[in-house]
């Protein structure tokens, strides 16, 4: 073999080795991109949990979430305690006319917590136990709980009429009509 052929063979081997290294680095890069995306997704879950799915009364993730007629949500226990003092939304101060259990929010929180740390999940379990104990205490004393509430509770804003029939003026912002279900 001539020196040129040997040199060409050596260059060919080096090229193949470099191509193998480049492929390995590309795989590494793809794997790290996947890890970064997973970390970003977990950070987004945490951000949503911390900023959107927390009760503004107790600052914990919703436990037995309840949504009011004004569309603000709270823990059932928290809003029941709040309503003992005031019949208005703690956020917008609109009169509370109805509240509805939001199982969707509870399920969403539970699913998101599955992907978070064990510490966060343990804290949630502790809170659930505490709230369950409070609910037992309240039900023994005869206080209402979220389980006692119908899907929608409403009161008529027209105090001169005891009926729940719609007024002839219809449903307006100044004179809304509510139905008890």
Task: Return the average pLDDT rounded to an integer.
Answer: 78
Low-confidence stretches: 150-173, 177-181
The percentage helix is 40-55%
CATH superfamily of the domain at 65-133: Zinc/RING finger domain, C3HC4 (zinc finger)
Structural class: mainly alpha
Number-wise, the strands total: 3
User: Strand-residue fraction?
Assistant: 5-15%
Tell me about the biggest sheet?
3 strands, antiparallel
CATH architectural category of the domain at 65-133: 2-Layer Sandwich
Strand adjacency order, main sheet: 2-1-3
For the record, the CATH class of the domain at 65-133 is: Alpha Beta
Could you tell me the radius of gyration in angstroms? 30 Å
Helix segment tally: 4
Run of helices and strands? HEEHEHH
Head-to-tail CA distance between termini: 96 Å
The name CATH uses for the topology of the domain at 65-133 is Herpes Virus-1
Shape: rod-shaped
